[in-house]
Amino acid sequence: MYKIGIDLGGTSIKAGLVSQSFEILLEKNTPTNISVGAENIIRRIAELADELVREAQIPEEQIQGIGIGSPGVIDRRRGVVLYSNNFYWENVPLLDILGTYTSRRAFIANDAQCAVLGELVAGAGVGCQDLVLLTLGTGVGSGIVVNGRIFEGGGGGGIYGHNIIVRNGEPCTCGRRGCAESYASATALIRRTRELVVSGKSPALAKLCSHDIQKVTGKTVFDAAKQSDPSSCALVKDYIEELGESIVNLINLFRPQKVLLSGGICNQGQYILEPLNKFVQENCYAGKYLPIAPVEIAKLGAKAGLVGAAALIHEVGSP
Amino acid sequence: MYKIGIDLGGTSIKAGLVSQSFEILLEKNTPTNISVGAENIIRRIAELADELVREAQIPEEQIQGIGIGSPGVIDRRRGVVLYSNNFYWENVPLLDILGTYTSRRAFIANDAQCAVLGELVAGAGVGCQDLVLLTLGTGVGSGIVVNGRIFEGGGGGGIYGHNIIVRNGEPCTCGRRGCAESYASATALIRRTRELVVSGKSPALAKLCSHDIQKVTGKTVFDAAKQSDPSSCALVKDYIEELGESIVNLINLFRPQKVLLSGGICNQGQYILEPLNKFVQENCYAGKYLPIAPVEIAKLGAKAGLVGAAALIHEVGSP
After folding, report:
1. Touching check for B281 and chain A: CB below 8 Å?
2. Are B189 and B272 in contact (CB under 8 A)?
3. pLDDT in tens, B34-86
4. Which residues on neighbouring strands pair with residue B14, listed in sequence order?
5. Partner-chain contact B154 A286, CB within 8 Å
6. Are A265 and A272 in contact (CB under 8 A)?
7. Do the Cβ atoms of A276 and A244 come closer than 8 Å?
8. pTM for the complete prediction?
9. Hey, are the CB atoms on B285 and A162 less than 8 Å from each other?
10. B3-40 as b/e: b if 16+ CB within 10 A
């Protein structure tokens, strides 16, 4: 049996034919072209699924369905994208529209939920029943698995990135101040690195980006810290502790077996994992009495979303 | 059929015979006397259960079991109190010890978990499937119900009070800084009211407590605010918003149908509920697209723990 996974992104739609053991057997990508509108994008999803099945020459009865990972706020039960700022979508009944173009069973979840499910079935979370994944990119996405299933509370929950960790802190894109996202995202790290360059306090950092803040990436401050630049070391320490506070908050609530991280910052590997795990071990509630999840790097990278989307079909009792 | 609920507190052990419809038919209280040690306290629980059954003249086969609410960190599956600072207990195998004194089936959860379950079956949460209760007292206890069952993630989770909302903020009893508990508890409100009295900025407040900070209660600052004392109004506003941030954080993750509050501060009723609900409605993530739980006052008061303890026996698939 085979599943079709769709990773619907702002730039491209990735579609994959996925085996029972969650290997991607065949993959097709196509530009999303947001301006063509929801109807056309969703029809394209149905077509990509058909193309995959045809090219792989799989008999129709061996296809279990289509799983879709979409950015935004999703009503999984009704199959509606309630809101996606990337796509300018509001209340798009994605699964209903898809149903007019295909008779295959289809399921949907948001991108971070698919990513954590992907890691659960085929990545760093294999063997876990309870798993948390934070995606550290433009924002902070959270995917939470409880007892082997995507957790969204009473519906639409499991959103951690817009939880406050610094009351009246940095402004967030969501309108609040001090959200986890405005501290732990790659965007936030880049913003603060730029501020440090502009402040003139770190000649080493300024040199690394050739005095051009446009050249600052999520890696720059780590490079400067590894050269023992004091301000950069302090910023890295702050970043790790702020990310750490978020992980501690999540462990206190969800007590997963592992916490996974993904995003470019994870290329720092042990350089961030070591101090991060130390911080988390020291700060979780009742750490002397309850096991504390290790923080690890996710394994599937950009493939997690596609694999996890396919795994939506597999998820026991998927809505 | 009948259930026995036990509310194990630092001052007294409350035991109740509870009907199928969660009415307390007969109640017995006894001082806890912590110094007699775990073994004696747990034996007393078994005895109280026997006394209730005997006095109510209920046939043994109509007693479904004993549910116990205990303070501290609980391993519900193994029936162990991992840690309780009130009792100076560490790794006390409560259900095993109880088993040496009674053959009745027994279940355990922490006090906030029992309180939310009590409200779910017989209080302000009747009809909800997903419910959050915050107990605002010495600390901030959190009881979370997801899909009709106590939520504790992978085990021992569901603890919100020690989540950070103000990084590097007020010191908390747990050793961290800026925990929700160090802002939203009654203790925190009293501490800040006292600071305001000492500061000399609020003559109205100083007068209300006769210039004696020992006379400050959780009510004092509300009384001064109702007299339009500017500093007290500002403190009440701060308190409500800090409690509000915590509620927003919990809604983003758990999307309950209601959020309930209990504790003496709830006597303020609409005076806190109105601004609190306004804050929560304005600040929840994706509030335009997902329903936002109303914040209400819990109904069962001090009885919630006992009723909820009895309801542990009722909980579908209780561990």
Report:
1. no
2. no
3. 999 999 999 999 999 999 999 999 999 999 999 999 999 999 999 999 999 88
4. B7, B29
5. no
6. yes
7. yes
8. 0.96
9. yes
10. bbbbbbbeeebbbbbbeeebebebeeeeebeeeeebee
